[in-house]
Fold this protein.
Amino acid sequence: MIRLVDVSRLYRTGAEEVHALDGVSLEINRGEFLAIMGTSGSGKSTMMNIIGCLDRPTAGHYYFEGHDVGRMSDDQQALLRSREFGFIFQQFNLLPRMSAIEQVELPLVYQSKGGRRKRAKEALAMVGLGNRMTHKPTMLSGGQQQRVAIARALVVNPRVILADEPTGALDTRTSEEVMEILEGLVRERGITVILVTHEQDVANYADRIIRMRDGKIVEDAVHRHGEHHARAVTA
């Protein structure tokens, strides 16, 4: 479904060059639950941004369903991003004056009002917030706010969910609840979930864990049913 081939991302700040990604190759299958781990500056968020069409690689190729994303125009990438990807972040990015259902309707701005409301209700029910639809963020706990953010990502029926530190602002119990929701999206709905985290307990929900260091993948491990089979990645 997703294939990166020798992808690099170079940032220049004055005379300094920073290789955020350095020749990364990776394949991700449909319905896979993948966790990306690494310290700050390892390249994990840069790779997620490229996969989600929020950034472009400096070199290499990114293919989505066999299509070379690098050959797409900005408008084509924006269309791909809006149709195929749902995004969840550490900070919930909710608007303070809008109710939960209004937040979830936002990605559907071009649909009819009735259609928006129906799909938003379904998405909120899916994350267990069917009785909190009119609540504003200040009336919701942190875990409930993150559930609203998940519903907002789901409302477009994406094939891929990109979650960047989705439990970073949550306590342990609430983190577990959020991760169980994401796990359910993979198992029950076949959605591909790509998760960036620095927490091993969170990564353990995934079927596969890759570790990054200095812009490179240094380990690619299958992690399923308590098993852990690591394969070192050599340059």
